[in-house]
Amino acid sequence: MKKFNTAPISGMQELLPSMQARFNDYKTAVYETYLAHGYLDIETPTIERAEILLAKAGGETEKQIYKVVKTAELASEADQALRFDHTVPLARYVVEHANDLCFPFKVTQIGRNFRGERPQKGRFREFYQCDVDVIGWQTLPLAYDADVIATLADALKVLPIDKFQIRVSNRKILAGVLTALGLIAKQNEIFGVVDHIDKMSQHDWSEALREVVANDEKAEKLEKFVRENRGEWREISSRMTIAGTSDEWALYREGVSELGEVLDILDAALSPELRGRVEVIADMSIVRGLDYYTGTVFETVATDYREFGSLCSGGRYDSLASNYTEQSLPGVGGSIGLTRLFSVLKNYNLVSENITRPVDVCIVPVSDQEIMASLQLAERLRQKSKKVDVILTDKKLGDKMKYAAKVAKAAVVVGENEVAAGSYNIKNLESGETKLLEI
Length: 439
Prior knowledge:
Blueprint: H1 17-36, E1 40-41, E2 47-49, H2 50-54, H3 61-64, E3 67-68, E4 80-82, H4 87-97, E5 105-114, E6 126-135, H5 143-156, E7 164-170, H6 171-180, H7 187-194, H8 202-213, H9 216-228, E8 230-231, H10 233-242, H11 250-269, H12 272-275, E9 278-283, E10 296-302, E11 312-317, E12 331-337, H13 338-347, E13 359-365, H14 371-382, E14 388-390, H15 397-407, E15 408-414, H16 416-421, E16 425-428, E17 434-436
Parallel strand pairs: 1-5, 7-9, 13-14, 13-15
Antiparallel strand pairs: 2-4, 3-4, 5-6, 6-12, 7-10, 8-9, 10-11, 11-12, 15-16, 16-17
Helix pairs in contact: 1-5, 5-11, 6-11, 7-8, 8-9, 10-11
């Protein structure tokens, strides 16, 4: 009988070794894709000063931060907290190390983040995020917005999903519409409603928008604009460019121009392989929930599994670092929420339940007399970049082979005759094929 509840805390991922190996495979493949696109790897501390994280967290995030409390310290006095994403700590990092970095600074971070959300299916309190960001010095060309999106799209090809849809917008467009309609003071509230267009029924969404806008005529115009401008850029760009020619529509026109430029560059940046799997559309309902986004914003969904929600997302943040410095350090970035995504893939049986054997070779000494020779053989194989385990327990040979079959792809039995001859056979534990081991 257990003395304590040994189940992991709700909202925390915990995997058996075979599934952990598959998770790690995805994480490694994403990381290698980021490096292939020229992004440099860093790690920022898990714990940050609370004032850094709260400088411009925005929305519900401020309510979800885990404060770090020392023994006998009151939570209200805590001045440190667990990071809730990589972007805010990155802004601090760049300010701290600006004199030693090369700009534009292309960087990747892959690690755990923490949010005190109510745990539910597909939502975690502790989770891996795989980020790419580019930080500029004073200016940052819009081409980097496209570069970030193309990099994330390339990373998604490692998933067992055939087709993706990337939905791109620019927050200046909707902000420009709100400015022209005299609703800019309600921007955050309206953006919050718009962001939920695919999470509510059409009726409930319309009613929520009307309630926030508090003007039926303006709410109707806003709803029409959002609903009509979701699709192929070629189809909607002409009417969006023509609309709003007066000075009060300046911000709107700026957003339209930026969106068009990003989409044109993105079209050229996607590899031939990705073109058959990725559809890129303009979608004015994409605004993203965090307040620090200032321009380009995007989300990616699985075409045949839209119920998965966003696979990766991100956007432009021109003023995030301004919370910590007077220097202009505009940035753009995006993230794959790997823990949530892996959980969804498992729930839809898109991650194979077949045993994944993390070890390449398991060496099986017949008796204690062959242990020294087995350890030496293991080291020779490790020098050939093999992952090798040696069974050191005093069990029967049959039991040792059962163990090997659970953890390794292949096994090498080391007996008295093999040691004397210096020759070993390797057995493929998946196919049953046996051949001479080449070392």
